[in-house]
Amino acid sequence: MIQSDLDLFDAHPQQLAAHTTLLPGFALAELEPLLDALRPVLRAAPFRHMQTPGGLRMAVALSNCGALGWVSDASGYRYSATDPVSGKPWPALPRVLVELASRAAAQAGFDGFVADACLINHYLPGTRLSLHQDRDEQDYAHPIVSISLGLPAVFLFGGLQRSDRTRRIPLNHGDVLVWGGEDRLRFHGVLPIKPGVHPRMGERRINLTLRKAG
Ligand code: MD3
Ligand code: FE
Predict the structure, then answer these.
(1) What's the pLDDT tens digit per position in 77-129?
(2) pTM for this predicted structure
(3) Is 190 near ligand 1, meaning CB less than 6 Å away?
(4) Do the domain assignments include residue 7?
(5) Domain count, the chain
(6) What strands, in cross-sheet order, belong to the sheet with 188-190?
(7) CATH of the domain at 52
(8) pLDDT tens-digit profile of 151-200?
(9) What pLDDT sits at residue 139?
């Protein structure tokens, strides 16, 4: 067996920074329950392209579930209890997601993490996410847990200043990333997704970020 196969089957947590942990394949054990839970969420709140405050259409399409959802429009970025498309509350956050995020956070050293918001990003081949900080949540003391599904991505892991150098970290189907503490406000982004078809997810990448937003 070649080394990369061994890595897949004996995936160990990787400490990317003091408070950033990559858990390779952590979501795979519960992939089908997770996808079963996502289906009704995305039926009730389909992916849409939001406008940036500058009036540009975001390349990433997104949706949310949970008590709060991240929204962007001409008046800025914020968390909202209602879906601006349906005018209704966001779909409930599936328990399988809350529990998976809580276990991942605990494994990375953040005990007692209970998400109240899940931002769901949808990438087609060619879609990228430019360098930014996540700073719309109430309390930066809570970590964020990210679940990557589908086509592989390269994420850019930067520093606390936009101009800091970035590291390129591959993220694969089923990988879970937890970051908090002093890493919570690092700049980060995603390089354009390479063309491809994922055997389970098709021609897309989906990223779930579980947050304590309120
Ligand atoms: C945070 N999503 O939704 S998540 C976002 O893959 C977002 O869709 C990306 O950024 C995505 O706000 C990335 C993983 C991630 C990676 C590195 C980080 C989040 C990070 C470094 C510092 C802070
Ligand atoms: Fe982000």
Answers:
(1) 999 999 999 999 999 999 999 999 999 999 999 999 999 999 999 999 999 99
(2) 0.95
(3) yes
(4) no
(5) 1
(6) 129-132, 188-190, 153-157, 167-171
(7) 2.60.120.590
(8) 999 999 999 999 999 999 999 999 999 999 999 999 999 999 999 999 99
(9) 86
Query: 4: pLDDT confidence band, cut at 50, 70 and 90?
Result: low
Q: What's the Cα-to-Cα distance from 109 to each of 15, 102, 146, 208, rounded to whole Å? A: 11, 11, 15, 20
Q: How far is the CA of 67 from the centre of ligand 1 (A)?
A: 20
Instruction: State residue 43 phi and psi, 5-degree precision.
Output: -70, -40
> How far does the centroid of ligand 1 lie from the alpha carbon of residue 146, in Å?
7
Residue 57 to residue 67: CA distance in whole angstroms:
25
Q: How many CB atoms lie within 10 A of CB 72?
A: 17
Alpha carbons 209 and 188: distance in angstroms, whole number: 13
pLDDT tens-digit readout, 45-85: 999 999 999 999 999 999 999 999 999 999 999 999 999 99
- Give the number of whichever ligand sits closest to the CA of residue 70: 1
Q: Which domain holds residue 75?
A: 17-211
